[in-house]
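Hey, I'm writing a tutorial for new members on how sequence and structure tokens pair up, and I'd like a real worked example in the thread rather than a made-up one. If someone can provide the structure for the chain below, I'll link this post from the tutorial.
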Amino acid sequence: MAVPGFFLSYTKLSTFRRCRKQYWFSYLSGQPRPPDPPSAPGIVGKAVHRGMQLLVEARNASIARAELELYLRQPGHEVAGPGTEAYENALRYFDAGVEVSAAIPAHTTWVERDLRHDSANGITFFARVDRIDLLEDGAYQAIDWKTGIDRDDWTDEQLDIIHVAARSAAAVPATSPMTTMAWNLREKIRNPEYVPRTRHLERDDAVHTLRWGFAVAETMRSTTEFQAMPGNHCGYCNWRAHCPEADMAARASWEAPDIVAPTEEAEATPDDLD
């Protein structure tokens, strides 16, 4: 079944899974998004992403590091400011990212790109991609920098959505494979043997993701009840002040089940990527 005008991103999907009420507030209520609550991990993540972006744009690690430090010193960022463990972690994560970046044999690099694929089915697949490389050997690679805790199954879905959006927007040739990677800089520091989560994907894999996305979008679009699902995530939810159920988070934790599996009824063809 077609789902006209539906916008699908990894962030939207993960919000739907995490808490239906948060999903309603974020995507259906029409209310302006409240400011982010002060969170050291959140501030560190944004700082490192800023640094990694400028590392490519300025081609200078010192300039990029100085921008990262400036961001952490700003008012409102005290929980990750100078003298905190979070501040030192941010610098270590950035230095690890510099090391990773230096080893990439890139011919051309794009950073912080908002990419989309408008499907013939009426669904727009959207992804903000931290880094895309056209490598010296002609292969394409997309990287998502991470500084927190991963769930491998959800990360795989994020990388698959990135693949669809990047393959379409970057006009990757149909015969060319593409690698998508989740580089967790936190884990790189903690574990010398760390290997990034990596997906080696072909065009047919993008078609599979389209089929899966159509089924998921139909489930999301047809949902009519948006109950709160209190858990640890309430502590960093922008809508907490609007949600009495968030007070239950200290007493209970809830995790949403997988919402849907791919079905044969969802239709996608290679033409959707043309």
